[in-house]
Design goal:
By secondary structure, this protein is α/β, with parallel strands linked by helices. Helix content is about 40%, strand content about 20%. A five-stranded parallel sheet has the order 2-1-6-7-8, sandwiched between helices. A three-stranded antiparallel sheet has the order 3-4-5. Strand 6, helix 5 and strand 7 form a beta-alpha-beta unit. Helix 2 packs parallel to helix 7. The radius of gyration is 16 Å and the shape is globular.
Length: about 210
């Protein structure tokens, strides 16, 4: 299965989430940056508000594509302790990288939300959306942080992810909607025809409802 782009993926996800259309207490949260484009399509189709929930990958030393953990905007940190130990990652590196990602989260929060308050999550049906899952570390941090806010239901919706990661995340969400779980998985972008980098400006326009 190939998605044309993130909008196409979002429209297909929206079809799978159509049972929530018109519900008043639904909130759609996109993980920046690419996940917000997918989430915007879901929110539009369901008639639900759109916002962001920021979680950032903690990368392995010398390998920015490999996640050894993640940190969420509320401060929740999730580490893959087995991977950290297996790679011999030192505590000082984890602390430094976590601090760096927290700085980026603060920058994104200021850019995307400005003076707007964070949405109320308690008692809501919260749909967390991303453009795909690889290791699941970033999504795991986000789900655990969102769970602490006591939503009525926590749903993860992603176009694609490997079976082991989706199984892991299914234990953290009340429901997981994943359109494609290929056994041979190498990168999220491999399942898109167009997987161009998303800019901050695109995210801001979507959140402001101007595109």
């Amino acid at each position: 299965m190939l998605f044309r782009d993130r909008r196409d993926a979002g429209q297909r996800l929206a079809e799978a989430l159509a049972f929530l259309k018109g519900r008043e207490n639904v909130l759609v949260l996109g993980i920046p940056r690419g996940g917000v484009i997918v989430a915007a399509e879901v929110a539009c189709a369901l008639g639900a508000p759109l916002d962001v929930f920021i979680a950032r990958k903690i990368s392995a030393p010398g390998n920015p594509e490999m996640a050894i953990g993640a940190v969420a905007s509320c401060g929740e940190v999730v580490l893959d302790e087995g991977l950290v130990a297996g790679l011999g990652v030192q505590p000082y590196y984890v602390e430094k990288e976590t601090a760096r990602q927290r700085q980026e989260i603060a920058r994104q929060m200021a850019a995307y939300r400005g003076d707007r308050a964070s949405p109320e999550l308690t008692g809501k049906i919260v749909i967390l959306v991303d453009d795909g899952v690889a290791t699941g570390a970033t999504t795991l941090a986000a789900l655990r942080a969102l769970r602490a806010a006591r939503p009525a239901e926590l749903i993860l919706a992603v176009p694609v992810g490997p079976p082991d990661a989706i199984t892991l995340l299914s234990a953290e969400a009340d429901r997981v909607i994943c359109l494609h779980t290929p056994e041979w998985f190498w990168a999220v972008g491999a399942f898109y025809v167009d997987f161009d980098q998303t800019t901050d400006e695109e995210v801001i326009r979507l959140l402001e409802g101007t595109t």
